[in-house]
Design goal:
mainly alpha; Hypothetical Protein Yqey, Chain: A, domain1; Arc Repressor Mutant, subunit A; 2 domains; 0% strand
Length: 155
């Protein structure tokens, strides 16, 4: 079952269960997917967006909600922070299991070897390989500096 089908199924189940908060989050996911589909069609891509793009959307949604929760906590609004973190839990159900630190290190080694990266100028190619393979499974904001360190130290 692909990602869209899983979310549609979960939405129907949330309606049956009368789980209002869960349903609200699932509808936000569907809306984000539809917005991206519309943008893709406007760019001339009639097929819509692929699974990797959808995972990227979910990853971005998680990141936004974590940042909002942190802001709410700093502002003393724990009720709003809890709501954001509850949405994160629902969204993360549809993301693949994140890679461990060891798996990330192995993935970096493989990507560097695959593109024959030897200097910092190859960073974009290495990141491209990682994003194609591990979308939704690693935090590219954290991985970028790791790739940079690995390339600047000569592999």
């Amino acid at each position: 079952m692909d990602l869209r089908e899983r979310i549609t199924s979960a939405t129907k189940q949330a309606m049956k269960d009368k789980a209002a908060d869960r349903l609200s989050t699932l509808r936000l996911i569907n809306a984000a997917f539809k917005d991206r589909d519309i943008a893709a069609r406007a760019e001339g891509n009639e097929a819509g967006v692929g699974e990797a793009d959808l995972l990227a959307i979910l990853g971005k949604m998680v990141k936004q909600r974590r940042e909002s929760a942190r802001t709410y906590e700093e502002g003393g609004r724990l009720d709003l922070a809890e709501r954001e973190l509850a949405e994160v839990e629902v969204i993360e159900e549809f993301l693949p299991k994140p890679l461990s630190d060891g798996e990330i290190s192995s993935a970096l080694d493989a990507a560097v070897a695959e593109v024959g990266a030897s200097s910092i100028r190859d960073m974009g190619r290495v990141m491209g390989v990682l994003k194609a393979r591990y979308q939704g499974r690693m935090d590219f904001g954290a991985v970028g500096p790791m790739v940079k360190d690995r390339l600047s130290s000569g592999g």
